[in-house]
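Can't paste images in this forum, so I'm doing it all in text. The chain is below; anyone willing to post the predicted structure tokens underneath?
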Amino acid sequence: MKKRILSLALAGALCLSMTAPALAAGLDNFQKVNTYTAGQFSDVPADAWFAPNVQAAYELDLMTGSSATTFNPNGNLTVAEALVLACRLHSAYVGDGEAFAASGGAWYQPYVDYAVKNGIITDGAYTDYTATALDLDSGRLTIDGSVTIQLAFRSIYNVYNILAAYAACREVGIAADTASGVINNYILRNGRMQKFTLGAHRGVLLTSKHENSIAYDTNLRYIAASKSPCTVLVIVDAVSRKYFTSETSWLWDIDFDRLACDSVQRVILSGQYANDLAERFSFTAVAPEKCTVEPDIRAAAALLESQGDEDLYVVTCFSDRDKLLDLPCVKKEV
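Text version of the structure:
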């Protein structure tokens, strides 16, 4: 409750930094708009020292609780909630009758707009750098209810990276539109994702760290989320030196069952360890008739070049990526 009261005091302090018209208004503008019934919040006992304060805040429509039956008196206020308090106090004090109607963005966006308009805060002064909306199917991320960024790589991990990059830009003073413009559809130039064409196929090569099941699973999840018919080429042609015997037990840590979805029409297993891959896939839900084993990477590429025009995804590691990308039939996008 102490933190809630401190936040209320902060909100009040914000409101009292006002222009002359605001100062002309009076405390008489604060009117009860809600009816409080003792015991309506299960976590606010009638004999609690703070119960009268909760009642006053509720009746004045400054705070309405965390739910219909709880107030959460020992909880913490977010920046957004403190800003809501400031705006409600200001609106009541000056008697402007603001309705704070929902705008279709973040729930607190009407309050941010009001606070900026009335000089309570400056534009961009407070932000949680929060993903307030996310549609991985369309590759659209909305930050703080107003900044929209298109994702070139539709992965939740890329969302984390984008949020970190955006927050860093804003914290050093870069404008929101500038930061979002640079980040929009950005593709890391570290080789993890490479677009290309092979025959009539538009392809995306997704590079995983050597024998890292989390990296592989992230890329498989990305493929499984695709709604368009596709072929998946899995290449394992090299094993890192930590597996000095070239054993492939790490393949069993990868969740290849993610490819057992309607959009994946066929899976081509290639590289020196194609047969090890085939053994691993025999224990997945991927239909055997969808799988083709072609150990020779060049031959696998020639097969793809001669057949179909569906989307193509390649899953491999850093050591093997260029064994496909450097083939004459593969045209990398710059």
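Residues 13-20 have pLDDT under 50 and may be disordered. Residues 177 and 204 are 29 Å apart (CA to CA).
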